[in-house]
Structure prediction request, 338 residues.
Amino acid sequence: MTDRNLADWHNRAALFEQEINKAVIGLERPVRLVTTAIFARGHAMLEGDVGVGKTTLLRAVARGIGGAYERIEGTIDLMPNDLVYHTYINEAGKPQVDPGPILKHGEELSTFFFNEVNRARPQVHSLLLRVMAEKSVTAFNREHYFPHLQVFADRNRVEKDETFEIPSAARDRFMMELKIETPEDPALQRELMFNPRFYDVDALIETIQPGILPYRELNEISRQIQHHIQASETLQNYALQLWQATRFPKNFSIALDNVDMDRLILAGASARGAGMLMRAARVTAWLNGRTHVLPEDIREIFHETIAHRVFFNPTYELRRTLLAEQLSQKILQQVAAP
Ligand SMILES: Nc1ncnc2c1ncn2[C@@H]1O[C@H](COP(=O)(O)OP(=O)(O)OP(=O)(O)O)[C@@H](O)[C@H]1O
Prediction:
């Protein structure tokens, strides 16, 4: 792949973001983060209330990259097999087995949206984990591969009844956790409320130019970006310090109000998490038009790639969202950028 190719992909990425921002409004930052995850080939957890545009965003993404899109609802009675196949009585009155949402598009599956993932049972989470990590499942006596698959999940954060928290290991496999919120700008709120364009999602998605980022080429372009975008030794030292600060915040004089810093952290970010931080930072540098990562590229994606990997003592877990935000902020404040 040549520099010209990368430059061409850079233009395509800009067009892609522009098109997605036509379908969902006021979500420029989440759209940038999702674009980053796409080029870093990472899965993402979306956090947001109902009806804030998550499905619209992901359908727009699927149209922008091409390939097949599937969405599944997490429910308490969902079984792992429901993802793989479904059985029913066909018109001839005979039992029939059809491939389920994961299998039915084969290698064309590019975007899989697991809505309300915390309503599904742990057995379902473990299947999802395997699909995310290995991009394959075993079914009908053979292995099925999904080399272009990217998983997006959404966690219902309003209702906690009958929910199953995603285990730490599963959360670590998500490259990012990002917030999707209703825009605060009154002009955008007026648009969403009164412009009929936003009432019909199917028509809205149709307006997006299809296949701007051909999904079959994303793995290769992602590899090229990781090789092409440099991280100097000084930058590496900075990134290492940030990682250490998630493990031993006290060593960096990080203190949060009303928190015993000796007890806050059960485990800091994993090595996988630290690697994902740099993968995302390289893509951010590339999207920002650079050939070298700068501290600001890391800072741009630090919270979304790292906060969900830091495990708090159970006494602090209840206040996780707030504490995680404060911790990220303090780390970025206290670790001196070169
Ligand atoms: N920021 C936004 N930009 C464009 N449309 C939006 C936005 N927020 C909400 N909508 C509109 O609100 C409706 C619901 O959006 P959508 O189905 O994408 O939400 P959701 O977050 O996936 O909700 P749920 O979790 O209930 O499925 C759609 O008609 C969508 O066009």
